[in-house]
Every structure is written in C-alpha cells, then in structure tokens.
User: What shape does this take?
Amino acid sequence: MAEDKYKQEDLLKIEYCPPRKDWMDSKIDFEAKKGNWCYSAVPAAMEYLDLNTEMGKWQPHDKDWPLPDNWKEIIFEGLHDRLKKFRTLQIFMDICVRCGACADKCHFFIGSGDPKNMPVVRAELLRSVYRKEYTTAGKLLGKMVGARELTVDVLKEWFYYFFQCTECRRCSVFCPYGIDTAEITIIVRELLDLVGMNIDWITTPASNCFRTGNHLGIQPHGVLDSLEFAQEELEDITGLKIDLPVNRKGAEILFIAPSADYFANPHYFTLLGYLALFHEIGLDYTWSTFASEGGNFGLFHSHDMIKRLNAKMYMEADRLGVKWILGGECGHMWRVIHQYMHTMNGERQNGLEEPVSPITGTKFENAKATKMVHIAEFTADLIKNNKIKLDPSRNDHIIPTYHDSCNPARAMGLIEEPRYIINAVSNNFHEMPENTIREQTFCCGSGAGLGTDENMEMRLRGGLPRANAVKYVNEKHGVNQLLCMCAIDKATLPPLLEYWVPGVEVAGIHELVGNALIMEGAKERTVDLREEPMLGFDEESEKVSAATGEDTENV
Amino acid sequence: MSMKELLQERKDSIFEKWLDRVIMTYPSESSNFFKNKKNRFDNPIGSTLNKELPILLDALINLNDLDEVSNSIDEIVRIRAVQEFSAAQAVGFLLLLKKVIREELDGKTEISVNVDDWWSVEDKIDRMVFMAFDIYMSCKEKIFEIRSRSFERQTYVLDKMAERAAERSDKGEEMNAN
Ligand code: SF4
Ligand code: SF4
Assistant: This one.
C-alpha cells in the first residue's frame, strides 16, 4: 500500500547526504551503477588473443562472477612477477607520501566528487593489497596501516575503478615524486586480464587488429574501397585526381593512420586533408592495407599485447622496403611509438633509416630510434620551409580552439607544432584557459578503451572539465570548432560537446590544412572538405585569392 | 517584516547554508574541494553552484516569472543528471532550500511571517523542482540521442558510399530506360 510505503514525516525529511563510510568498504552495487561501467569481453575475442576464457560469458551486474577457482593465486603470482620486472611499480607502491597534490587533478574526480577517483586513492586500491601481502606492518597491523585482504569485492572494485581511469597521466604532472597512476592502472588491468576479466570495447578491437591489422576489422579490400572513395570525393571538391599509392613496394615512406580515419565522421575529413597534402607536395609514399591501423588497443590490455599489435608496423615497412614511417593524427598510437616501440620491436627495423623529409631535407633527429615521424612535425616543417601555399581565410567560417590530446601532449611533448600549423591555416585561433591545455590538458574522459556507449554517464562527467573550458571560449570568442589530433578524441568529443556545449564541432588539424591548401591546377574552391560553403568564397572571391596565392600563403 | 524582506536580509546566510547542504549530497571527502577550490576551470561543479544558487535564491525572493532562471537550473541539473544520483536526488537539491529557510526561521519568536507568504515561497520552490525534473528528463533523452548518433558517426563513410552507389544505379537505370 502506498500509505504504508510513504509516511508523511518521511517525505518531509529532506536529506540527500550519502552516509559516511570507510573507503576500504569496497562493495560495489553494479546493478545500481549502470552507466558507469563497461560490458565484459566476449569469449571469442579473448580466445582469439589467447587470453584466459575461464570466466566464459558474464556481465558485471551478475550477482556472482564466475572467477577461476585459483583467481587469487593468479593475481598474486602476476603481481609478484610485475614487481620484479617493473622497478617503477615497486617504487610507486612504496614512495607515495599521500601529500594529496594529485587528489583533485583527475577529471573523473572533478566531475564526480567520488573520492575513489582521486588518483592517490585509485592507487591505494592496489597499494592496500600490496601492503598486506608484502610489508610487515601491513601483515601485522592490517587496516590500521592501510592494508587489506584481497577479496572478491576488492577485485570487483578494481574492475570498477581501473576501468574508470583513462590513463591520461594528468595526475602525474602534479606529483612531486613523479608517481604515474596511469602505470598503476596499466598493471592492474594486466592482472585483471590474467583472470579473464576485461571489457568488450578493448578486447574486440584488439582481436580485430590482430586478425586484420586494424581495430575495426576492415579487410584489405575494404580499406582500399574507402581510400578510393576519398580519392573520388577529393576530385569532386578540387577537380584534381590525386595520387593514391597503396601497398606500393619501394616507396620512400610508409604512411600509417588510425583506422577510424577511413570510415568515421569527423576523422574522414582529416584523411582527405592528408591525401590532398601528400599529392600537393608530390610525396613518394604509400598506404598499407595491412598496417592499416596506427592505434594500439594492446596498450589498454598488457605490455605483451602492445608488442604483439605494434610489430606489424616494422614488418610492413620491411615488406614494402620503405626508408621510414610517417604516422597520422592519433593519440595513444604515439604513446606506444614514443615510449615502447623501439624497446619492444626495435630488432624488426630492417633497412629503416633515420627519417629525413624529402621535401625540406630536415632530419628528424628525435625519431632516430623509432624511425617514425608524427605528421604534425612533418607538416610544421613544410610550413616553416615555405613548401606549401596556404590561404587561412578559407577557414574563416571556423573559429577554432585546440584540445591537446593527452598522449601527444603529455607522453611525447608535442605541444608547439600543432599550434604552429593551426596559426598558419586559421586567422581565428583562440586558446582555452592555461590550466586546461598543454601539459595540464584535461582528458576527453573516454580514452584508454572507455569510449563505448554503456558507460556514457561516466564519460560525460569525466569530460566535464574539458567541455567546461570549451564552453568558456565558445561564449567568450564564439569558438565553433574544437581541433584535436587523436582518433579517440574525434570519436568521443562530439558526444561530449553535444551534451555540454551544443553547436561546437570537432575536427582534425589536417582537415583545416586541407581546406587552406592551395593546390596547383585545382578548380576554384567554394566548399571545404565537409562540402560546406566557405565564408566569402563565392566564385569571385576565390578567384582573387587563388590568383594572389603568394600574398595569402602561410602566416 | 514581510517574507520578502526577511529573505532579502538573510540572503547571504541562506545561500551559505544551502550551498553546504547541496555539497553534502556528495561524498564527504570531496566537500572541501567543491567548496574551497576557487578556479572555475579546476572546479566546475563548485563554481557552477556558487554562481547559480544565488541566482535561484534571488528569483525566489524577487521574481514571479521563473522561466528566467531555467538556464541556472539547467546548469546544475545537467551536471547532476550524469552523476551517481537518482532522479529524485538530482532535482532534490532545490527542496533543500525549504529546509534551510525553515531552519532560518525556526525558534525565532521575534519573526512572524504571513502564512500565505510562506506558502507562496514553497510554491515557487515546487515550481522550480518541476522545471528541474523536465530538464533532468531532457538530459536523459539527450544521452540516448547521443548514443544513437555516435553509431551513425562510425558508419559515416559506409553510408556515403552506399548513397553514391544508389545514385549511380539510379542514373544507370535512367540511362537504360532512355
Ligand atoms: S591517469 Fe588520468 S584518469 Fe587516471 S587517475 Fe590519473 S588523472 Fe585520473
Ligand atoms: S601527488 Fe604523488 S606522493 Fe602525493 S599523494 Fe599523489 S601520488 Fe602520492
């Protein structure tokens, strides 16, 4: 009866404060927390990657999780191995002084107020178990010194919170000891992987990648179809039949882009930009339908998986006989290349040489080890050496700001080059506030394999700090486009902005390069790469700007 | 003293207490951060509350047309709609204001307010709650729309290729027919 259920005095009690509880109290009610976690990995994908499939089909909201009987043993053995192998892990476990400098730096904490999203507490979820197992004080004094047993509830809590970290490393920028919580997340995810606990949005793309060379599972002819389609579209826009070298042996450079560039919106417009640029400078290069993915979801699995998925880049470079590799606009791809590739797969670099731009003669000394150059470095160098003609007024309908994607900015320090390019192709660039860009950039809230749909609420609140800064420049300067150079950003920022700052679109840097690029022999341009009209570019004004290309070239 | 004068006089203290109560709907470990971190980009939730709650309080005292504050309600509810709150908790922050005002009057015998005035204040708060609930629902609908649209974005090129193929086959048929 309703009267029994709702007493008047209860209704008058207006209090919505959550009860205070000990942070070690770890029971997560997955059923009640839908929207905050991701679906589990499907066994077929796990099997394809030779991962533990003992858990079979399960979902986080199931009451009992079908863990292998010896799950605890597996976890401790795994932890033991990793403590021996990674000195960083051992150090990160021991040296945190709980100063709290990192506590309020995580976008998930800022957007939720959940204390377990404070990086220091996130790390404590593992550290508490480590203390109990490895330290005398922890063994003897338990909870008093922040040590606790590894139980099924703790394991579930790991699953919940370590798939609520985007491995963005913002917290590490503020830690006086350089503790990198992202690395702790990487290790815990490895441990979960060992007992067969992973999420579908990470495992299926990784298994696709292992099978076809790209996360989307597109087969070689599909990649080719898409590239040929792009070639046709560019002909419609520019009137030029651009070169499309695919799997061409003996090319000087192999170009590898994230696979979303072939198929998704707005990634695809960036791909049109690359094609136009390479045609215009007459680059001796090739695409590959096998190394058809720059990204590496292995990074969100384990170190072994990184190595396994990354190897194809050098193997394909070897097969095609190129001199070096140029890479497209992607985020975590560059974390892998910059931090792991040479160590993991360096011995496969047959015949590769230190990259030199064939157009400007610039030696990319920073890429001496990996033999792989980021397209932002490559294009910035072209502009610096006056090798391309640009008309930034062709982007006058766009008022851009720039989101530093976490990985290029924090993992490889690629901060000035993108800005240099943007300023050359746009007259209207506005920065977001200082504490939200460059090294301090706020994550999109959906990286490290969390960009799926079922956790949308979590993504939207995790992306709030980023969106909040975009909203500011939108209101202050009329910014209508958020530029970025990461495939995950291009997929996850549009929904984020649709919710928080409707009306602001997302685009890649090379899309704007493609708009501004003056191409020899091209027809008069009136539309941009999205086939949308460019401000003031009716046929008359285009004639003027094309005729005086020199006057309008780079700024 | 009229209700309006009273609220006007005690506005600052009501705001402080209301803000505290709203912040208390979050886990206690984060209240210090929400309350004291001043930079609006480092602390969007705290600064949104700091900016919008006084606007709502002002409207309660002075405005008859609450539509003018729907934007302020939106700013707060849009955030709460993606946090770990139930629908009631997401919009219930407005009801906390009733409690704060009651406490402000409670036991103060020197203050006597007209019952009609008090009811009109309560009515206004109730109206704000209804507005908040509509906004909450529109946020949830938006999230569903976003989910379906993100799928369309992933298949953008395939859809365009299919369109072009269809155009071509239409043209082909036309040519054959001629
Ligand atoms: S790496 Fe990023 S998401 Fe993970 S805890 Fe640190 S700030 Fe948060
Ligand atoms: S900033 Fe570093 S030392 Fe301080 S609490 Fe965070 S991880 Fe620990």
